[in-house]
What we know:
Blueprint: H1 16-31, E1 34-39, H2 45-60, E2 70-74, H3 82-92, H4 101-114, E3 119-123, H5 130-144, E4 153-159, H6 168-171, H7 176-184, E5 191-193, H8 199-212, H9 226-233, H10 248-264, H11 272-282, H12 301-310
Helix pairs in contact: 1-2, 3-4, 3-5, 4-5, 8-9, 10-11
Amino acid sequence: MKRAPFTVFRGFIETGFEQRFQGLLRLAWQQRSWHIIVAEPGSGKTMGIRDLVQTSARARGTIGGRNFPILAVTAPKNDPKEQALGNYLLLAMDFPSRGRWSERKNGVIQLLQHYAVECLVIDDAHDLSLQHLILLKEITDQLRLPPFDHALGLCLVTAGRGAAMPLKDVMDRPETMWMQFRRRLDGVQPYCKVVSHTQGEVRDILGALERVYRASFPTLNLRKWTGAIYTWLTHPLLDPQNSGRVNMDHLMKLITTALEWTYTAGEMDVTTQTLQAAAELLTLRRDTIQVIDAPVVKVPQTVQKEETKDEDPVNHPQGRKGFPAGPSEVSSNLHPEVSG
């Protein structure tokens, strides 16, 4: 009986990072505070934002009509005009973005109050232009005035590594505009860096993945490899800042690759060799270029001999007798060999 294809889990896991990250977003939501938040690329920011937006909407219910307690958009790429960000806000509220921007701009303010938006989250905020930031300040300032009297929390979520804090250089500018923006940032936690996973948190994630993949691997035991996995994923190539923290994207790639190979081999649990080979793909072999070619069909040797016997010796000089009849064999394998 043919086995079903391996299904990769792409859902949300409430990791230690997500608890820290979502906790900060909830704080901004509850207190209507402003924060600039940075975390490493691949740490799970977008996944956490999506989950919080969905759960906050369900918690509010639909008795009083649609609303968006937390409204999240991604910063426009390569379009510095304020209209680009305004269109994203309108689309997030399922409102058409047609017509002149000068006429729809006031509509954004009205819709934010109408749909009871309490916190605005901008993902990839490092891509925001000066015009985008000015629009955010203008919208939030207008909402705080009568007849709206509506305060908004604001989280600018950015990607970064090390000690760098995106957008801080903008906020530190001496112009009055940025002094006002900076004054609106939270007094206790204006700039926040959310760190990735400790070794203990890696163990908890591995336990969650064991439950997720239990149907395909009844005897799966990933937690016993916690120490080795933590060591591999804090390799200098994956952790150049020597933070001792494990990135969620690296962890999921390692486990998913190892489980795919294990499933293909028909085994019920991963081995050390399989995990180590998957780890090498992320480190020692991460720049390897895989050559994908058509499979080569081998011609039986007996057929080759018969064809050689029937060939006309006049058309083939003696020096060419040993030349291969077919193309040279080229093979490609997407997976490294795993020794038992």
